[in-house]
Amino acid sequence: MPCNALAGNGPFHFNYGNVVLSGEIGLADIRGQEFLYWNSGEWHNHKASQLDWKSIEVTLLTIGLDAYIDQDWSVKSRFDIGAGGDGHMLDRDWASKLHSDWSGRAVMPDTNLNHYFSGSIQLDRIVASTGTSSFAIGAGFRYTDVKWTAYGGYGIESSGDPLFRDRHPIWPGDRKVVSNRQKIPIGFLSLSGQHVIGDLSVSGGIRAGLTIGFEDIDDHWGERRIYHDLYTAPTMGADVAVSYAVTPSASLYLRGSFDRVFQTRGDERSYATVPGKFNGKFNGQWENTVASAFQVMSVSFGLKAAF
Description:
- The chain is built from 1 helix and 15 strands.
- The chain has one helix at about 1-5, and strands spanning about 10-15, 20-40, 45-70, 75-85, 85-95, 105-110, 110-130, 135-155, 170-195, 200-210, 215-220, 225-230, 235-245, 250-275, 275-305.
- The longest helix is centred in the first third of the chain and has 4 residues, at about 1-5.
């Protein structure tokens, strides 16, 4: 029933019969990875490049809308928006045949999170219930869109064998160097539960799924744009929430969430660019030469009020 389902839904609540609207504010840690592999000449499945993107202490706003159809069935939706935070990007290359360690490294401390959006919808059915506990299974769809841009930075580069780590480039802070965008559709199954002990409610769930058309867009401004058409990747997620009723209509609330898209390989399409923009000239296409991964962790907190 909606009154039971309110526990653990969000810091701010408005209950309209069988519909529950919730809102949250919190902090998120958002990370993405890109990989490039060489499969030509003397190189076979050689990791040539790895880019690690991250934003920590991202402000995360969440809106949820749940509709309870009857005693057992419900439809739940959620939408996350992330902004700000402290961003960083590390780019490493392995392009030397004489050294196994990285041959080039670029550090981009001025990395901005352009946007982070994530929305999900799922259908749940309660399969077991007691007076204080319930367990549900569900199926749903989630879509995530995230983009970073790195400005300026410093690095170490190699001119080519036998020269190794002989160059030390610096990029000015106003120069847009690299951007990365990941678009991640996911279909998933879930198992969730809730237990109520007096004024305390504990709820949580786990999710497992697969990506459906995962795409990664990598812009090295002034050089090239690379599209990663990625193969299906396994995903997992979990969340837990604790809610304590301070008054009959208000509760303190804390929720933690984790989602990961595991690394998956894919095909590369490369296009030429000119400084600052994309001009669309096709460079070529290669199979099984790129890979990507994604992860987000968040903690939300605040006050939950029921009306």
